Amino acid sequence: MPTLLSSRPGPASSDPRPAPHRRRRIPLRLLAAGAGAAVLVPVGLQVAGWLPENPFGRDVVDRSTTPLLLALEDLHEYHAATGAFQVVVDREVDTRYVPSAISGERVQLLATGTADAYVDFSGLDAGAVTLSGDGTAATIELPAPRLDEVRIDPEESRVLDRDRGLVERIGDALGDDPVDDAELYAMAEDRLAAAAAESDLRERAEDNTRTMLTGLARSLGVDEVEVRFEDTADSAG
Hints:
Elements: H1 28-47, H2 68-75, E1 77-94, E2 104-120, E3 129-131, E4 137-142, E5 146-147, E6 151-152, E7 158-164, H3 166-174, H4 182-198, H5 201-219, E8 224-229
Parallel strand pairs: 4-8
Antiparallel strand pairs: 1-2, 2-5, 2-6, 2-7, 3-4
């Protein structure tokens, strides 16, 4: 019987059945991304109906300071200076051809009052304020300061002396001729107004107004301010 001396592996066995097919595994990340894209597409189509034409455009909001001219108009009247004045009114009323001891009156009134100098901003137009190109310098044209009506202080005003004739004194005693100082106070107002007009009240009003407007303009971003006034008007109203 023949003896087997060596052995070698024979050729691979050929199985008529096909080898089993291996399935490729898709990463979960790709599946999630795909699902997200599938959801975004229909949602995006719906949102496009109500989004603005340029959803990422910029809106400009004007938060600039109130213009200087409007600030001046809001002031209306700026009472820039106040002066206190005092006058003595010496008024004598005589009866013709009758001695003053018989009929007549002499009164001395010490009148104290105040007057304001003000600048009227209510009538300013667009040309009243001129700004430089960069808005850092301004020229302001204003009307001249005016004098307000004089206000007599009754507590600081008094009759210094009253000398009346016999007829007037009898009238006072009988009550038929009451003392009326309305005309005397009217004269005092005129004298006080004249004293205010002759004073430096308007010049002080210009200086105070210039100082006030410089501070106001600088608070609005204007660095250099020039304030000009019209010629002083001889008016107290």
